[in-house]
Every structure is written in structure tokens, then in C-alpha cells.
Amino acid sequence: MSLNHRVGQHIKHLRLKAGIKSQAKLAELCGWKSQSRVGNYEAGSRTVSPADAEVLAKVLEVDPAEIIFGLPNGKSPNRKYQDEAAFSISGFEFWDSDTPLNEDEVEIPFYMEVELSAGQGIAEMPHFNGPKLRFAKSTLRKSHVDQTHAACVRVSGNSMEPVLPSGSTVGVDTSQTNVIDGKMYAINHDGMLRIKTLYKLPSGGLRLRSFNLDEWPDERYEGDDIKHITVIGKVFWYSVLL
Prior knowledge:
The chain is built from 7 helices and 10 strands. It has helices at residues 3-17, 23-30, 36-43, 50-60, 64-69, 79-84, 137-142, and strands at residues 87-88, 105-111, 132-136, 150-154, 169-173, 183-189, 192-200, 206-209, 219-221, 229-239. A 10-stranded mixed β-sheet has the order 1-3-2-4-5-10-6-7-8-9.
């Protein structure tokens, strides 16, 4: 079953669960003139656009992820489902692996779980068969990012809130490892992936700053301690869902 058909089943299930008996009524509640849009979505003959996913989620009183994955917010789809799906940077637009790229699109690896403890960080994983994010080539050009050096990872924890809540996604340019004061970087800190704002110290060390300073004060690493930190790359993009 294609991804569009599964999403269609989720929409139908959530519609009936909400007590909305007809596609026409759901279309009306969404402010759409025709029932055919809902019909096409439920039949799996049309990909749900990011804007429509948000409208449906609001009317059905669920998180958009529940429309796409059929799971309540906070739960994750199984790995097979993750590998079949890809996320657009504009929101909840999904496609199957067989969907061709547009002329101005490229796919960037999206690491759902990054294992750094064995030295296998995103900078050391050139062959990737998991889920991907689609970016416009123009977006990467504006950030001066080469597609071959770009990767996306999930942010974990609350240290970068409110800018990057836990679960946010960041794009990392692995070719940019020279620290520019005040910029965000992905680092490997003793095998742990961390996203921090970095500042160079005169001694050759680094100061790590979190946005959530109340709970995460600045950290200074100098001398032998700096050997435990490897800069993976500079953050060039992030996406936040509230």
C-alpha cells in the first residue's frame, strides 16, 4: 500500500472517530468548497499538502503527525514506515520513495538516530539508505551549502529551548567545521550528539552556550578536555513544530 493510501485511511478513520459521517461535511468544516478534495485524500489519489494537513488536524482536533502516521503526538512510526517516508522542509508533505524529484529539488539524509559512540557520526556515513528530507537547490545555494556535505538530525533535550524545542530538526553543513563565534554547530562530545552555540577561547578551547541558560549554564573546555569534542558541522537550517 502506498503512503498516500495509508494517509487516506488515517484521515477517514479520524473523520469517523470525530463523528463526521460524510466527506462533504469534513470539507465544509475545513472551509473547502468541494467534497472532492477530501475524497481524493481518503482515496489516496492525492498527496496531502502541508497547509491542508494543518487544516485537517485543526478540524479533527489531532496533531498533524497523527494524520500522516496514524499515531498520537509523541509516538514514532516504526522504522520501515520511516524509511518509506520523507518530510518536506515546508511542513507535512510526504512522498513515496518512487516519487521523482522536481528539477529544483535534492534529497538530504535525515538521521532519526545518530550513533556517535562508535565514531559513526553523520560526517562518517556517506552511504545512507534511510529517510530523507527534500530541499530546494535554491535554498542550499542561498546558504552556500553543497548537497554532498549536508545532513539533517533531530535535536534532543531542552537545552536549546525555546529556539529549538526537543524534537526539532536541524540541517548541518559538515564541510563547515571552523568555528565562527556565536554560530550553532553540531558536535560529537564523547560520543554524544549535541547542538550548541560555540565561541572560541584564547587558549584554543571552546565555550559551549545553550539558549536555555537557566538550566544549562555555559560550558568551557580547554586543554585535554577539548580533545573530547569534535565539530561535526555548522547548522544552516532548522525546522520547529509547536
